[in-house]
Structure formats: C-alpha cells, structure tokens
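for the recovery benchmark. tokens below, seq after
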C-alpha cells in the first residue's frame, strides 16, 4: 500500500457503510486490507477499524442479522466429489488457486477429521440469484460433534492461500458476514444435519508462514463481542498432505 491514511480517513470509510446500510459489503472495503499505521496517530489500521466496530457492534450485529438470503437450490453441490488431481507443487496462479486448495483439503478431510471435524463440502454457494451482491462462497464447511447429545459444531472456514494479501480482519469479517446471511436451517437440511442445538463457528484458515499471528492482537477485542465463536487455524503442506494446526495464543 503506497498511500498512507489518517485515522479520520479510515473512520470515514467505515462510516459510509453504516450510513448507507451497506453492512454485508463492509468486509470488502479496501481499508479492511490495509496494513501498517495511520500517518497521524501511528495506530495499526486493523486496530482503528476494530475499535470502531466494537463501539458500534450492537448496530452492526443487528443490521447484518436482518439480512438473510435463502438459496432455493441446495447449498450442497452434487458434482463435488472426493477426487482431485491438484498438485500443490505446480503452484497454479490466479484466483482459482484458493478453490483448488480448498478442493484438495476436502479430499483429504472429508472422511478423516481435522481439528475442525470432517469437511462436508467446499465452495458452498450463498447466492440465490446472480444479482445477489456481496455474496461469495463458503470456502469450506465442516462439522464435528457438539458438547450435547445430538448437537453439532458447524464451521464456516475462510481459507487464505499462501502469500495472501488479505488481513486476518478481512478473513474474520467475511466469514462472519456469511454466517449471518446464510439460512442455517436450510443449510442443515441440505447436509442432513440436526436443526437445533448446534454451535456455529467462524474459522479463518490461513497459511502458517505468512505471519498472521502478528495481527491477532488487533482483532481480539472484536472476537470478544461477536455473537458467534471464532477459532483460527493455520495450514501448511508437508510430505504430500495438508497439516492443520490451531493458531497459537488464542
């Protein structure tokens, strides 16, 4: 990022979303991916954003929670299978790289549980129609046994490829937005999951060597006030498979 911004500049960018009731697109604002410090107060950009969100968290949660998009078609994609010819060492370029990594992780963990349980699917669509703006796909959806009999822990995983330029804050806000917008009852029905007593968890899944741990301190205040659990994982590729660990110091 070549241009530097003041704290007031950042607040104005955030305020525009609140003023325009554009909560579902907040995670895509360019300021969410800013790294470094404001040129006047010398505060980390993510810290400034998190402080603002914490101050306005009740409004943010309420308004975002009122936006639900129900997909008429199934959330489960029929032609997704456990077969993959993806070779990580080929290092394919472009936007589809994350999708291929997600597919490979699905192939590895659809029958064998990871720390976040078994992966049910990858690239789970959220849109009901083409012009549903602000909606992408859930990179990975996984399930583990819940604390109570018959309950499940359902993870919305936001995957970031190696050398990603996106911030940890962006990962969290994107996963949180998707978790609020999706029709959870239909999601559970489509994947044959229990309808009640489930715990929903948003889970950034970032590349271990990219140093996301350094950003953790700036987002912790936000994690404490969200109305959903957050678990952060890191991945790396070793000996022909994906190794998943929980981020330290959570």
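predicted aa per position
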């Amino acid at each position: 990022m070549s241009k530097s911004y003041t704290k007031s500049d950042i607040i104005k960018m955030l305020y525009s979303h609140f003023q325009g009731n554009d909560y579902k697109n907040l995670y895509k604002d360019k300021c969410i991916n800013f790294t470094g410090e404001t040129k006047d107060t010398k505060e980390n950009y993510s810290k400034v954003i998190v402080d603002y969100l914490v101050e306005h968290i009740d409004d943010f949660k309420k308004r975002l929670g009122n936006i639900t998009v129900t997909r008429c078609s199934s959330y489960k994609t029929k032609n997704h299978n456990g077969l993959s010819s993806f070779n990580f060492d080929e290092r394919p370029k472009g936007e589809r790289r994350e999708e291929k990594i997600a597919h490979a992780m699905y192939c590895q963990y659809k029958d064998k549980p990871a720390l976040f349980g078994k992966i049910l699917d990858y690239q789970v669509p959220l849109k009901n129609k083409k012009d549903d703006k602000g909606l992408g796909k859930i990179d990975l959806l996984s399930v583990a046994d819940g604390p109570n009999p018959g309950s499940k822990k359902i993870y919305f995983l936001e995957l970031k490829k190696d050398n990603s330029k996106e911030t940890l804050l962006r990962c969290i806000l994107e996963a949180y937005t998707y978790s609020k917008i999706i029709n959870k009852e239909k999601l559970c029905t489509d994947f044959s999951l229990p309808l009640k007593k489930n715990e929903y968890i948003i889970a950034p899944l970032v590349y271990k060597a990219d140093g996301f741990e350094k950003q953790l301190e700036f987002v912790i205040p936000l994690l404490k006030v969200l109305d959903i659990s957050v678990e952060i994982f890191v991945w790396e590729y070793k000996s022909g498979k994906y190794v998943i660990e929980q981020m330290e110091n959570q």
